[in-house]
Specification:
By secondary structure, the chain is of the alpha+beta class. The chain contains three helices and three strands, in the order αβααββ.
Length: 73
């Protein structure tokens, strides 16, 4: 199990509540930002950290990248 800091845990919880748990239900950084009520810059930094840890997956799309949870945390 990967150790998550409080901001990472906040983002993961928001993604779970939004239903971003599989590749067919990805959510954007804007979706997560609205759910957590945190600045977009902070959300983007946390998303990059979570991708690097292998907890979530980033899906590049035309307009905005989407994210979904890979590992159960």
């Amino acid at each position: 199990m990967v150790e998550l800091n409080p901001n990472e845990q906040l983002v993961i919880n928001a993604m779970k509540e939004l239903g971003a748990t599989k590749d067919t239900s990805i959510k954007t950084a804007d979706d997560i930002m609205k759910k957590t009520n945190r600045p977009k810059g902070m959300i983007n930094n946390v998303l990059v950290d979570l991708v690097n840890k292998g907890v979530i997956k980033r899906v590049a799309r035309e307009k905005a990248s989407g994210y979904y949870i890979l590992a159960q945390v």
